[in-house]
User: Fold these one by one.
Assistant:
Number 1:
Amino acid sequence: MNTWQNIQYKMLRSGSRVNLLIGINVFVFLLVNIAGVIDRLIFQSNFIDYYSGELLLLPSFLPRLASHFWTPFTYMFMHAGIFHILFNMLWLYWFGQIFEEYLGNKRTIGLYLLGGLTGAIFFIAAYNIFPFFAAALAGSTVVGASASVMAIIVATATLLPDYSLNLILLGPVKLKWIALFYVVIDFLSIAGPNAGGEFAHLGGALFGFVYIKQLKRGNDWIAAIAGIFKSKSKMRVVSKNSDRNDSGKPRQDEIDRILDKITESGYGSLSKQEREILSRASKDNEV
């Protein structure tokens, strides 16, 4: 299998929505920036840079937003530079893999999109409400997947707060401390030079936190939205109902108990049978 075939497999056939999202972000970044470099070198123009920013970034000015109504979606697949996309995609990969390991891949894209949309709402609201941003309102835009990535980071940390990642120089650090660190940094920076981005990050983080809290109560917002476009209902991973399930799928109360056990004691505390139940439930819910 050559490199291109390997990339295609990981994006489209591996089943991981994280790989698909990373692939889309990288493709858009390369497309826009390679075209921009060629435009500058050959045509000595900034046509690509100007119009990609004009048409794809999210503006805070409401009249402009009304005529660029697609930008709350497109901004979350754009990036301002190589390091911007690099760190966003690394965090998306690290936390997204953990998220999908425990909840399957059904919810990843929905969480990414809804986290990004919530970040967009926070950015637009902040710039139109707080007098501090009045002078910058007309020309301000926001760009990047950070709000979407923050939704996945905080959602994963809320689901598995005591799960640890080995960080360079720091060693094992629990997810809850990583997420809390970034939320605090974002909050302390909301009056700084990247205020719009920080508000978007906080919006994404809030959505990720609330989503997992609601999921544990049996309210799967992402599955509910997906269900609007489906005629056949799917089992929810978390529910308070304990109805008998004769289809061979794990019962709702079993999955609820296992997720609570993971939250309290970590994935390593599960028995082999409990791991099999969780794996079976995740596969039943993949789309």
Number 2:
Amino acid sequence: MTAVEPHAPAADPMLPRPFRVVAHHLDTDDTVTLSLEPMAGDPLEFASGQFTMLHAFGVGEVPISISGDPTWPGPLVHTIRDVGNVTHALVGAGVGAVVGVRGPYGRGWDVADGIGGDVLLAAGGIGLAPLRPVLWEIADRRTDFDRVVLLYGARSPSEVLFGPDLERWAQECGIEVEVTVDYAPPTWQGRVGPVTKLISRAGFDPHRTLALVCGPEIMMTLSTQALLGRGVAPDRVRLSMERNMKCGVGLCGHCQLRDLFICVDGPVLPYTELVDLLDVWEL
């Protein structure tokens, strides 16, 4: 990464603000979590489910969901999978490197809508990262919710994210955690199979449940079908959509999904706004 000198926070939402990497944690072979602190100005406040545009100087920028704790002051946290030139540069940013940050942007999970009832979270792969802030938010105010269930699927045991967090949520925060993988070695003691299969036997009251879903679109579609089949109301199912966001402020049109612009109307959207769009091939 190319170092830049600190300066005052940018007033223009299209200009990145410099943040320094203060921690670099390898989660899996191709995924890291970066902790960032501003080089000038106030820390960045955010809501669960929002994203920023992360800028690798000299390479480009990409939208990345914030994966840190919104209830705890501290570094800005992002979990990034190495899937392209920009993410490769960000994944390689060691402690002391400088990256650019724009945002936060978008519509979040609004988990407070689930207060007084059950909350079910279904995540696939890296889709756990955008839900991680929700889990910390719920843990911080656990008595406001009844049953909280996390169903998480990964491709293999080596690709399970946030292992220590999963244990803490289950053991200390009263959150029911179920993990499954697509395939595993004989030593794996957990479940094998798609995360959607866990929904049919998960313990929650569908008539008073807020369901939050994030993962590949096919996983979200199948999970939503399973949730509706259990009796969860369509307007109580929320999905985080991933599209090719470029500007973050609804100007460029790269993330358009028919009449929606995911960067401003989403990324979190109720199923009722997506029901006619998810089944349209290559929309």
Number 3:
Amino acid sequence: MTKRVHVPVATRRAQLVEAAMRVMRRDGAWALTTRAVAKDAEVPLGAVHYAFDSKTSLMRAVYAADIDSAATVLGGALNPGDDPREVLRRAVRRYAASLRLDPQVELVFQELGLMGVRDEELTALSREAVVDYRAEVARFLTQVAADAGQVWDAPVEVLAESLFGSLIGLAQNWLGTRDDALLDDCLEDVADQLARRLSVQ
């Protein structure tokens, strides 16, 4: 009899999050079920339910992984001493690069956002994810100002919501047109407009 290899829960959860993303990238966010994830990951359905007590818990982990990725993209643009305009431009360029690298990932999260609006069971999760994304953007903007020794002319939460909304909207338009030049021009404009809202203390 083959001895079953024990997989730590944290490792199994990471594997299942990756499987969930593969399912959604391939078939769309609406196709996500625990059964589909189990099949993709080649594990028993019970293994999915052991790692996550519900599909919502699995989706929360999917969001958390993407939020961590977004934080890495933005954080990689920071460099104390650089002109804040260049830091912001670098951040949006990094965002554009990640978008182009795997457009299906952006499509998945655009679809999940719509599901959160339409599905009452997912409304709270969708709201929670937006708050977490906004918080990461706010942390980035706070650090940009601190590194430059400057201050924003409006509450950072307002600026973070505006920047987050701009990125999502531009990404959605790009998914439809694949107009790289227009995306880059618009993102540069967003960065430049935002930089003007900093002032010396």
Number 4:
Amino acid sequence: MNAKLASRSGRLAGGWVVTAVFCFPIYLAVVNAFKANAQIKSDPLGLPNPFTFSNVITALSRPDHLIQTGLVNSVVITSATVALLIPLSSATSLWLFERSARVKGILTGIFALGLMIPPQVGLQPTVQVLKAMGLMNTYPGLVLVGISGGYFAFAVFVYVGFLHTVPKEILDSARVDGAGDLRVWWSIVMPLMRPATITVAIFVGLWTWNDFLGPLIILGPTQGQTITVAMYLSLGASAVSTDYGQVYAITLIAALIPLIAYLFCQREFVAGLTSGAAKG
């Protein structure tokens, strides 16, 4: 009994340590966003004393509106990427799920390559393709890159895993009643796969929101900035003496939108993760 209690206490302590490690950067961003720059340098771990909104106000009052523009661009690009990726990947997953085991295995291996190859490796040929298509330095070009490669492969894997929990009899009954493939996908499969859709939306949305190299190279600093590029440009303007209060304030502002989105979707997100792993 003592051994079991010690083991449980050890796992609990380990869990708290891991949680503290992951929460520590969040704590730093929150407390230091509301401190004066001098206090951040002297006591970065302490609570704000006095509490000030000057860092946030200064970040949002820039004459070039860099942060607001970055937030708007990030929202538009992330929303467009997720909105296009979900129907494409879910329809592909349904088609793949109903194929024979051999075809499914071959195509699954091909999709796995999209997860194994880092996106930075294919950035140069991607730029060449976008130039040939006339999509370089455009928002459609960046969105097109976002719905391809690893993001698409990840979404297909999540949807196929979730489809194993859907009774095949439901799909067969719908087809017997005369429903076509499009009707089966939209009216039956998509409502059932709502938790998987939320999971895909959260992961792909976060990856797109946090992407830095793609917007920096594909859009370019003069064409438009996402919030990550805006953070980089705002820091580059004060390279001689870094204003750490501004750094933490912009970081906090950039994290608020994805955090709020996650809080609204967290129940469906957990359901999607657990259901997708229930079978096969």
